Amino acid sequence: MILFVANLDGVYIGKKLYLVGIDSAPLWLIKENLNRYKLSGFGRFFKEGTLTNMESTLPPMTGPSWPSIYTGFKPGDHGVPEFLEMEPSYTKSVVYYDPSIKEPFWEKLARNGYTSLIITPAMLVKPTTSENIDMITGFPLPAKFSSKYVQKIAESNGFAGEPDIEADIKSGKMTLANASELFQQSILKRSNVAMDMLNKKDYDFAFICFTEQDRLQHFSLNLKEWRDYVMPLYERISEFLTWLEKRAESENATILLVSDHGAQPIKEKFLMNGWLINNGYAKLKPELEQAMNNSNAMSSIKYSVRERILKSMNRSGSRKILYDKLPKSLKNVSKNAFAAMLKGASSEDYTRLHDFDYDMHRTKAFASIANTVVCTIFINDSRFKNGIVKSSEKKKLKKELMNTLSQIKGKDGSKLMVNVFDADDYYEGTKLFIAPDVMAEIKPGYLIDAFGYQKSGNLFMQPETAKRGDHIRNGIFGVISKNEKLDYKKMEKSKLYVYNVAPTILKYFDCNIDTDRRYKPLF
């Protein structure tokens, strides 16, 4: 049943809802810069509605968080633990959101007769087939279109998806100033597509998602001049919000503003696998352990060649598979040379390790996948090819790990981990992927490295160029409504989760709420 409300002029129109997604938007960033930059589009939420915190998934990452927003379910239910997932062979496979596992709210709206415009939803890489939905798919793959009609409008506005420029930023080929300009253009083009399509068709619901700011924040947040690069992106989004707010007011519509997680500057990384090695939980291959003490290893040309090949891989493939195909002369280089300077990260020499450099016949636990403020640790049990931890030993080992992790201290003597989680409680026995067993959350300003850097006697390092900023568990939630009498103050005091978004939208349109029952509609 389609609902109708009267707008301010007494003309009856369909009940409308607009959802704007901003990847990695923290409340502190908007509040601190509200009066320093042109952010009136955000300011209106403070004046006429609310803009507050919303808790993300564990780990707080784009990969699992956006599907949780779309579905109202945790990662163990929708099948996206991160950008990658572990395989029994210790390889890592790429993961995208699969709507056939848990359906997004826009497909449910479509079956109830509502029309939707969906522009660049992160983690969705295959366009819908529903006639009630116009769609452009989003990050991290190139944009795809649900129809020639949608593609034509996108092309007429010069929008073909977000620019893929991270590699050029890392290599120094592109400055942050140039990257900021390109990302601003991308935001403007997407905004123009959205405005064009909203003006051409009468949609009941529209969702527009921006992820450029997250990508730039990773490269800049711990720099003094980070605002010069990042804040113009928020200004461009604010301009779109201002346009949308005027439209919503004329239609008596509601606007929701959400982020999948927040962001913070990073001052240091804690090397989790180094800690696991030092404490005997993980072991490197014997030849690699010997090479760690070889002062000539860092000069190995063969090692540099191997690293260049491996780093050329992107999310479309597995480095382990590529490694297996390397010539023997390169594959066995670890026997006499396995260290390299981490360019741009530190004045010290760190060994770059990969998952396949660990001796899984002797490793009880290893960190992998999540490389953020929340680390994921896997116990090497029967789920894996060379699992050595028996089921009868696992519970004791997990308890020991959690207790020991919680006691780790930083350089100043204070506890480094603010939370240590039993991952079974969070993933609830999922069969969709191999779930981690323990998750540890580090204190603000730090990042946990799970990709494998190691230096004897040192568990800290300066963040790489692409990790100058990283995630926090709280992103933003905002709402301005012209047709709902909302208690904004109560909402600000409540604990809000990304899982609350889908049931809220379904209730708004009077659809059946078949999401996780533990997370209720917000209004």
Brief rundown of the structure:
This protein has 523 residues and is α/β, with parallel strands linked by helices. The chain folds into two domains: 16-265 and 471-508, Alkaline Phosphatase, subunit A, CATH 3.40.720.10; 268-470, no CATH class. The protein contains 19 helices and 22 strands.
Comma- or semicolon-separated keywords:
523 residues, alpha/beta, Alkaline Phosphatase, subunit A, seven-stranded mixed sheet, four-stranded antiparallel sheet, 18% strand, globular, disordered N terminus
Structure description:
There is one protein chain. This protein is α/β, with parallel strands linked by helices and 523 residues long. The chain folds into two domains: 16-265 and 471-508, Alkaline Phosphatase, subunit A; 268-470, no CATH class. Helix content is 35%, strand content 18%. The chain contains 19 helices and 22 strands. A seven-stranded mixed beta sheet has the order 4-22-10-3-9-7-8, sandwiched between helices. A four-stranded antiparallel beta sheet has the order 14-15-17-16. Strands 18-12-20 form a three-stranded mixed beta sheet. Strand 1 and strand 2 form a beta hairpin. The chain is globular and about 70 Å long. The model is unreliable at 1-12, 313-323 and 330-348 (pLDDT under 50).
Helix content: 25-40%
- How much of the sequence lies in strands comes to 15-25%
**CATH architecture descriptor name of the largest domain:** 3-Layer(aba) Sandwich
Please list the strands of the largest sheet in the order they lie side by side: 4-22-10-3-9-7-8
Largest sheet: 7 strands, mixed
As for the CATH topology of the largest domain, it is Alkaline Phosphatase, subunit A
Tell the overall outline.
Answer: globular
Got a strand count? 22
- Please state the CA-atom Rg, rounded to the nearest Å: 24 Å
Tell me, rounded to a whole number, the average pLDDT: 89
Which CATH C-level class of the largest domain is it?
Alpha Beta
Q: State the helix count.
A: 19
Ends: how far apart?
A: 19 Å
Look at the helices and sheets and give the structural class. Answer: alpha/beta
Q: Identify low-pLDDT runs.
A: 1-12, 313-323, 330-348
Looking at how many chains there are and whether they match, the oligomeric state comes to single chain
Count of all domains: 2
For this structure, what is the CATH homologous superfamily of the largest domain?
A: Alkaline Phosphatase, subunit A
